[in-house]
Fold this protein.
Amino acid sequence: METTGRNTEQIILEAAEQEFLLHGFEGTKTTDIANRAGVNHALLHYYYRTKENLFNRIFEQKMQLFGCALVDIFNGSTLPLVEQIVCAAGKHFDFLADNPGMSRLLLTEVLCKPSRMEQLMTHLDKLKEEVLQPMQEALDSEADAGHMARIDAVMLLMNIVQLNICAVVIQPYVQAYADNFGERRHFLALRREENLCIIRKRLAPDSEETKTTATPS
Amino acid sequence: METTGRNTEQIILEAAEQEFLLHGFEGTKTTDIANRAGVNHALLHYYYRTKENLFNRIFEQKMQLFGCALVDIFNGSTLPLVEQIVCAAGKHFDFLADNPGMSRLLLTEVLCKPSRMEQLMTHLDKLKEEVLQPMQEALDSEADAGHMARIDAVMLLMNIVQLNICAVVIQPYVQAYADNFGERRHFLALRREENLCIIRKRLAPDSEETKTTATPS
DNA sequence: GCCTTGTTTAACAACACTGTTAAATACGTC
DNA sequence: GACGTATTTAACAGTGTTGTTAAACAAGGC
């Protein structure tokens, strides 16, 4: 019975994933997971002793997914810098839109339990070295040449991630509020354009009137 | 004993507010509230029968605060439209920065319990009539005149609220991650400038290259 | 001195959820 | 057919939290 054995272990894990994505850690009950997996609730503890165990596996995986996507997407190509960044922001949006549950889970869990934020931080260390530092240099040299507006790399990344995550997470609510956006895909497509438009315009060289910059001291 | 009576009732309410702001609904225990208020835990139930009662009072008040601030701040002045909007966005930022607990609570509670979102919606109905509709007309006429880029009012408001809320809520985490922003007030000041810069540039008339617009069908 | 109201104490009922356990059952393998 | 592993059943212990209750106490107003 090895085949079925490994199967149900997987089935439980996937059921747990879906429950946690929908209701968060506190909101899901182990019995619900068992029900969704179609197994007895005693079997959960037989495989993964505790609820925490189960959750940590899921959460860890999601954090890794999130962190790696950032690193992968924002790691340079040969395009001009602005286009490179806008393109990356678009890919990032698509990635989040394909994993709305992940965004929700990360956001809510991390906001409710600060300790989880520290956990997430460590997954973003690669980002700091591999993406942020080289990006800052590139940004500065482009700004020096007058090809784009000056901006701090952390602020830029905040802008992109904030806009993208929020868009995906609050989409259902905005659509319930303003009924004139059609179906989900349509709204998300519009929102994607809006976000990229914002980023592109933010990066465009300063005209005379719009000269404002925020950089750390 | 009327004076002291009304006092402790208030004291309990304030203690509850602080606990809820810090830990959310699920995260706070009634005994913690009692402890913070310096009264016996039986007294909570004597005044406000249930935890839900207590929470709803707080939450209702916060939603109202949030909704009214939006309406007040974004209700027109005599400035040119773009300046009017940027100025309002700045005031909105300041309001959130002064009430970081409120932003956190609204965000987390509303994300975890969709029913609360519906509750929040009703508090934003005024906004729809009094702000969004007139704003859309003003935006369109300015865009027609070529004085600013075309934009949907809902998208614009989303942009502002998202950027401002996120900035305030994730500030402690970003500061823990990137250590080069100095103290909280300094970071928030920078972030405020960044947000206003984004909005201003988004609203600036389209130059030739950056021509992208998102409007509902 | 007595009544009312506010407050404390301490114990307890009710409930929901997590995790454990022992015995029974199913099933593939040898 | 015997054995071992996977799985179910069903009951239960433990825990944490909410909400209730009865009795006593404090203190001001009459």
